[in-house]
Give the backbone structure.
Amino acid sequence: MRLGYVGLGSMGGAMACNLAAAGHDLTVYDLDPARIAEVAAFGASRAAASGEELAAQVDVLFTSLPGPRQASVAMPGLIEALAPGATWVDMTTNDRTLVVELAERAQTRGVDVVDAPVTGAIDGARTGNLTIFVGGSEPVIEKVRPYLEVLGRIIICGPLGNGNVVKLITNQLWFINAAAVGEGLVLGKKAGVELSVLWEALKASVADSFVVRHDVPSIFAGHYDPSFTLDLCCKDLGLIEALSETTQTAIPMTRRATERFEAARSAFGGDQAELLVCKLIEGASGADLRVEGDWPNHSEA
């Protein structure tokens, strides 16, 4: 089938590159021409002059947009441009209510919809090792499964919109961990434990997590992982808050984490690295969490 990809940022661009490199007939579009050129180098068949032009040409439309605000603006026009029988796969970390509303609009056009937000960070996107949380009907999921499997592991989460619920919960726990891990590292260092020793202990104990394994090296390096910004953290935390209100769920730990990320955004800027939430703790405690070593920067190719 003819594939299209709209939204070629850090995650979307990497996923589009993998689809192109796998030999699929892929048309791409982004507001930034440089991002289009990057995907074209991996074998994208063609570039479109607009999102609507792309949507009119494809059987399956993939979107990776910054969030609900952008989706609410872009998707009505893209949906109208899709031909009956086409499928829209939204890989945005999105608002469930918005996805369902847009899907209802798509259904009047004869367009199927799957929500498929991802986790696994930029390095997982580049290597095709993401985890993809898929919501939708089984026949539609099976139609797009071969393309999603190029990008990573699929977890079917239930009806349309459930993919985003699961994604937000994974981010909820990620952000709580990220806001807390700096406290443990600073506490250990100021109590006299070598940070490299403490890190090995965390990985080999009940404290182990993706944050400990994947994110702590970014703190040691001092770049705090610029592949995901504080603006995106706060956007997702706002979606989690909205979901908690809809479901009448108390989330006191999440609200405390939100306060910390908002403080980091105020201190360092929304376009800065996610793990600067831990630099707040360094500053407040008079500690430096740098560790000598060849630590990865996930934002770099």
